[in-house]
Amino acid sequence: MKKLPAALRVAVGVGVPALFAAGIAFFVRFGSPPCFVHAVTGIYCPGCGAGRAIRSLLSLHVGDALQYNLLFTLALPVVLLFIVKYYLSAVTGRDIMPAVRITDRAAWICVGAVAAFLVLRNIPVKPFSYLSPDVFL
Q1: Residues whose CB falls within 8 Å of the CB of residue 133, separated by 6 or more in sequence, listed in order
Q2: Contact between residue 88 and residue 81 where contact means Cβ atoms under 8 Å apart
Q3: For residue range 76-132, what is the model confidence (pLDDT) as tens digits?
């Protein structure tokens, strides 16, 4: 990663956590918006229930988060690892965390998993209906 100028590293170091905290506060106060895809088509997209999953995780209710969006909740630690890695690289100007490579094959497996999740969560029979975010409301 290209080293950023010192002023920009400070701005990123202060600005990103501030924006993250403001986003969490806004989310806790006002909740998540409804899913546009579900409102228009009636189909649960792979992200449906992710907002409620985040609220559940913020309240330390991991079981509820898994029920709202299983894929999102399971993928969140990996995504956060990448975010923290690139944040630390931008702020310090060097790679502190070990390099993590994503091969083309792994990327296609992730795309396939998301596509399978989209299809399976919209099948209205058990056990697939348990993947629907509204089944537990």
Answers
A1: 44, 48, 49, 52, 67, 68, 69
A2: no
A3: 999 888 888 888 888 887 888 777 788 999 999 999 999 999 999 999 888 888 888
